[in-house]
Amino acid sequence: xxxxxxxxxxxxxxxxxxxxxxxxxxxxxxxxxxxxxxxxxxxxxxxxxxxxxxxxxxxxxxxxxxxxxxxxxxxxxxxxxxxxxxxxxxxxxxxxxxxxxxxxxxxxxxxxxxxxxxxxxxxxxxxxxxxxxxxxxxxxxxxxxxxxxxxxxxxxxxxxxxxxxxxxxxxxxxxxxxxxxx
Amino acid sequence: xxxxxxxxxxxxxxxxxxxxxxxxxxxxxxxxxxxxxxxxxxxxxxxxxxxxxxxxxxxxxxxxxxxxxxxxxxxxxxxxxxxxxxxxxxxxxxxxxxxxx
Lengths: 182, 101
Fold this sequence. Notes:
The structure holds two protein chains of two kinds.
Chain A: H1 3-24, H2 28-48, H3 52-76, H4 79-86, H5 98-117, H6 124-131, H7 143-151, H8 155-175
Chain B: H1 4-24, H2 28-50, H3 58-88
Helix pairs in contact in B: 1-2, 2-3
């Protein structure tokens, strides 16, 4: 087993284990901080998939932006929510959760079975990419290529998403302002 | 190197965990975390397939767009959650039922 594979299994295990902890934890604060661990391990997985720029973006935007926003909203929404949450009975598996467990496990089985039936190396577009040397190698730096692509090939989606981001932020500020007569 | 299906298995597991979180949690913020988990599973898929596109980087570019979309979604959703908390004094989605008949 090479070093890369060992790192991959470690990151995958951390990702899935912290995700499971989020799923079974009763405490909201603990699940938010476990979400932090999940996001960091996912950034490691992105690096192993040869997408280093996306990994940095993941850390900056998700961990620095979204997670802090969630923690702020949670801390602002008061102590009573926290108290109510911790009063729930802490039986591990309740009967009300059984349909959700069933649905999630069955969906997982369906996806895994489809995955194992597919031969990825035999897909035509992947074979074409390998034949044309269109795959990213471990020595390639893709950041400059992504930057040029954002300004040329993906200019329309880039501008559209910037307008959408501005609309979303203005809308969020408008919704959450304090005013009686709207 | 790591094969493509390894990434897809991790992504499928993460997606199902997110689905479970959305279905069982009784707190709007935890449901939001479940949605983020599912989004991250989709982004992991995009990046794993994006390895086979070196010249125009479609997978990685759209992963970037998906991350930005997730940020916008979270900002609006948290504003809505704060407003719901101000009005109902709870963020349990089962108890905010005044629109019901």
